[in-house]
Amino acid sequence: MTTEQVVSPKTYLLVFAALLGLLLLTVAVAFIDLGLFNIVVALGIATAKALLIALYFMHLRYGDRLMWVVAAGGAFWLGILLTLTMSDYLTRGWIPIPGK
Amino acid sequence: MNGVGTAADERSTVSQRSSVLEHHFRDLEQQRGASTLGMWIFLATEVMFFGVLFLGYTAYRVVYHESFAEGSHHLKLLLGSINTVVLLSSSLTMALAVHAAQLGRSKALVSFLLMTMLLGVAFLGIKALEYYYEYEERLVPGLNFAYSGSNAGHVELFFILYFFMTGLHAFHLTVGIGLVAVIAFLAWRGRYTAEYHTPVELTGLYWHFVDVIWVFLFPLLYLIDRYR
Q: Smallest CA–CA separation between A1 and chain B, in Å?
């Protein structure tokens, strides 16, 4: 069972400051040419921000295991959706189709 | 509640408990756990709801990367960035509202909820301004899309996804503002106490979730190959 966790406003403010810092970083990095890594960095930063929000603002950090399973389940199923579909789109050019 | 309350205190606490505790739960703690879990499950289905749009976006961005970058450059980066700050701030005030609720500070709770609503409305206002600029620039598919260039069709696809994704997000935010308004009204009426404030927490979860969606939408839509 989860016991209610009171998080100090100081923690919230620190998380907020970190979120603003990450926002600045992601905008700044977008103006540097990193080739394919631009999207990797952008999604990495977005994931870090999402985790900060989920763990602290949404109290996931203090939640019980069942809550973790549900939260991770949402992300995992989204991963299945993206992975299976992209495994099609990204590999279409690999094998020549006879007659085409 | 450490055995120092008077009998009258005890009675009022008991009646308070029974008025908010549904009969099929053992205690408020169990009720709160069940409600929170239910909200997380709902949010997991919301991930799927938005997920298909992210999937469509991913597939077409991979195939038409150049056109998506071209489309992205027409979005107002400054307004989008300001809006991200506005939304992140609203999540902070929402978290502080939940904190106030946990401590039973009703006045602070109502104030923080109103601030959250105000920031939410500000976000929608800035978003509307962006839509207006895009309308002026004839970038709205189905309404006035007129774009010259060899990639016009694929740029249009980017804008279809842009309007669908930000539109669905704005719709969720509108629902969120409505929920916070109801919660603020009930808080003002003194419905929530340090002991019972689950609806405040659940509304907070929804609000933060909508924020998380934007955290992904912003770099995906506004920041494609900005260095060019």
A: 7
A contacts of B104 (beta carbons < 8 Å)? none
Q: Could you tell me the CATH number of the domain that includes residue B211? A: 1.20.120.80
| CB-based contact A53 B208, cutoff 8 Å | yes
Domain membership of residue B162 as a residue range: 22-222
List, for residues B178-200, the tens digit of each pLDDT value. Answer: 999 999 999 999 999 999 999 99
| Cβ separation A1–B94 shorter than 8 A | no
Residue-by-residue DSSP string for chain B:
--S-S-HHHHHHHHHHHHHHS-TTSSSHHHHHHHHHHHHHHHHHHHHHHHHHHHHHHHHHHHHTHHHHHHHHTTS-HHHHHHHHHHHHHHHHHHHHHHHHHHTT-HHHHHHHHHHHHHHHHHHHHHHHHHHHHHHHTT--TTTT----STTHHHHHHHHHHHHHHHHHHHHHHHHHHHHHHHHHHHHHTT---SS--HHHHHHHHHHHHHHHHHHHHHHHHH-TTTT-
Model ipTM value: 0.93
